[in-house]
Amino acid sequence: MAELDTAPHHTLERSKAAGRRSGVLSVDRRRMIGWAVVMPLIGGLIVFAVYPFIYLIFLSFSDSNLGTLFRGWVGVENYTDAIGQSKFTASLFRSAIFALMTTLVSVVLGVVVALLLDRAVKGRQILRTLILLPLMTPPITVAVMWQLLLMPKGGWLNSFLMDMALFSQPVSFLGSPTMAFPFVCLADVWQWTPFIALMTYAALQTLPEDIYEAAKLDGASGLAMFWSITLPMLGPALLAIAVLKLVIAFKVFDLVFVLTGGGPGQATTVSSFYIYRVAIQQFDIGAAAAQTLMFAVVVGLVTIPFTTAHDIAEKRLS
Amino acid sequence: MANVEVRNIYKSFGPVEVIHGIDVEIADKELVVLVGPSGCGKSTLLRMIAGLEDITAGEISIGDTVVNRVAAKDRNIAMVFQSYALYPHMTVYRNMSFGLRMRKIPKDEQDRRIRWAAGGLELTDYLKRYPRQLSGGQRQRVAMGRALVREPIAFLFDEPLSNLDAQLRVQMRTEIRELHQRLQTTMIYVTHDQVEAMTLADRIVVMRDGYIEQIGAPGHVYDRPANTFVAGFIGSPQMNLLPGTLGPDGTIALEGEITVRHTDSLAAEAGRSVLYGIRPEDLQLVGEGAGIAFGVDVVETTGREIELFGTLGSRRICVLLQGRANVRPGETVWITPAPERAHVFDAESGVRLEATGPS
After folding, report:
1. Taking CB atoms and an 8 Å cutoff, what residues of chain A touch B72?
2. Is B156 helix (H, G, I), strand (E, B) or coil?
3. Using the beta-carbon criterion (under 8 Å), do B98 and A215 form an inter-chain contact?
């Protein structure tokens, strides 16, 4: 009995001691531990983000080429030059159009595919794997494949159109100033729609079933269900996916490089490709740095409305 | 007319059969409560009536129309979900108007119905709010309002009060009962809470493991439970069930050489093993030596009544006393059961032996 009586005291004292210990920790050491925990991240950010960014800003005000960096300071000359070059400003515009177009089309198609996938009763597993194929294909292979498809001689599309007697002459899709850009967009949409479909499908799985049941009893079905329930509830996820796709589209390089090399003329020269040429073919690193920063501003201007809309939509649903 | 008839209904999920051929008839304007422990199939049955689950076999008809092949949206039934299932991206007003918009009800009629329902549910000040800006009780009201404005032929409730705190639950329970009296519309209500079932229902359907154990008015189910399951499930604290043997002269010999009386003529069955059932409130304290000695282990006071727990023979039993009594744990008190309130069940099957219990 005596032992039983003292037992609670022991526990109490032990917990008091623990309290004292953690009380000491709470002021200085806890702060130190906090810093120690975030240091790796801060360090990583400094090395991989802050430093390169500052370096880029410095470069953009300098006369630098591939051989010698920082040959001299030129002030804002790289910027004024870039604004003066209609080819550069046109590439910015083209990049924005490319990003918005491919995002719009692939998000719409992605949603359709995700809904079909959601409805599919049998073979969902196989369908999902099949749909992922374009995503698993290396970008350069995607580009080469589309090049082969679109070739004037022996290309599948030309053969098909001529077999159907729609065309009498083979057409160089990628060589045409009007058709090259849409076809590069098409290749990009083909490559990225599966990714968007998969993300959308995952988002669809998180929508609560009982709300659909309530809507069903309220008389909703088919399109009404989609417009009134699915789309508004999917909104935040779709906007987040769209931002991701926009950024991916702004970074496009390999497709343009392999399919058209930016041509014909400047028809498919998006900013990423234009800047690559300035830096690697003209060796003008200073100008490329200034253009990169201006390009970043455009990327921001295009994506910020989407992130804002995402925040609003998410707040409304939470 | 919205009588609901469930005829020989079976439901299987894959190879697992969860409802094994049940029949229920629900009259027009009746409030029927389906009650039973988790997994008894009550929600599944409700969802089949709503059209949210396919029917494996059997027939369900609403207002004399077989609805097996009628889509949920065409059954003109409204349902209130446990989770409320409000549309999070719509205001209260839009939530309530959704079903009307889908059915293309004119705008001014929509508005009239929403104002009417919101008035009755004290939601008028909240019509422009979003569900996330409301408390649990208010959300529950919106869910009810959404059902009300539809003016459906029947209301289905799937454990609508389970997510509310105890006080609100009691209040909403009364409101649902009032609503039913006012609207005079068929209501089917699912709950696992037997108190909710007793207080709300015109008739109770007690279910277990996909079978119906008993159907009847709350008083009838309470006073004449069809078997030991119903006897134990309905009523809190639970009915005491003690094993015994029927005697020749209206007596039952319980364990520990205790003899109790019942009022029915089961003399022909003498010698049969039975379970003697007596509700805690049907046991009374009597003077020392006048009844059965009962050692009290635990005393619980609710304020209105006192529950005494202890052991009789090998079984733990409960005695419910009204008012005040000065009984302490460890004491022995003397109790006597009211013979006319006794229930007798077959020991093996658990089925009530007829002509017993309060009439």
Report:
1. 213, 216-217
2. strand
3. yes
Residue B206, SS3 per DSSP:
strand
pTM: 0.79
Q: What are phi and psi of A138, to 5 degrees?
A: -60, 140
Nearest-Cα distance to chain A for B262, in Å, is 49
Per-residue model confidence as pLDDT tens digits over B56-90: 999 999 988 899 999 888 888 999 998 899 999 99
**SS3 string of B83-151?**
CCCCCCCCCHHHHHHHHHHHCCCCHHHHHHHHHHHHHHCCCHHHCCCCHHHCCHHHHHHHHHHHHHHCC
Complex ipTM value = 0.83
B3 with B194: CB under 8 angstroms? no
Predicted confidence (pLDDT) per residue in B296-313, tens digit: 999 998 888 899 999 887
HEC letters along B40-99:
CCHHHHHHHHHCCCCCCEEEEEECCEECCCCCHHHCCEEEECCCCCCCCCCCHHHHHHHH
Find chain A residues with C-beta within 8 A of B87's C-beta.
211, 214-215, 228-229
Report CA-CA distances (Å) from A157 to A149, A152, A190. 6, 9, 15
What is the number of CB-based contacts under 8 A between chain A and chain B?
68
Q: For residue B273, how many C-alpha atoms fall within 13 Å in the half-sphere facing its CB?
A: 6
Task: Mutate one of B102, B132, B134, B155 to test the A interface: name it (highest A CB count within 10 A).
Answer: B102
**CB–CB of A316 and B89 under 8 A?**
yes
